[in-house]
Amino acid sequence: MKRQETTDNKQDRVTPTLSVEFRTQNYDLTPAVREQLEADTQKLAPLLRDFPVVFLHADIHEHPHQHDFHLKLSLRLPNDTLFTGERHVQMRSAYLQCVRQMATKVKDYKAKLAKRADYAETR
């Protein structure tokens, strides 16, 4: 079976500090769907405004034989990278679930950073 893989080399800025890149396998990302996903990504913006630069990589893989999608998001922060993934029969549902999971991970990461800062101040 021939595998199709495309990388969207155009990195769009969703916010002044958040860039997004989409990579697809066996799936054609239309401009309309891309706009929807970028709007969904905007939900992360309030959590990320404290970081100087943030890069989100979205890997969208359609499994034609299983009739579902596998999505992976990696969020590159200045000193760390957070990952999440999800499978669903609808691509956007999988993406939204990944965004929700990523929001939780960002909140946890920021709480961990706050604890480190509090510890450093007490020393």
Automatic annotation (TrEMBL):
SUPFAM superfamilies: Ribosome binding protein Y (YfiA homologue)
InterPro entries named in the record: RHF-like, RHF/RaiA
Alphabetized Pfam families for the sequence: Ribosomal_S30AE
Descriptive protein name: HPF/RaiA family ribosome-associated protein
Species of origin: Sulfidibacter corallicola
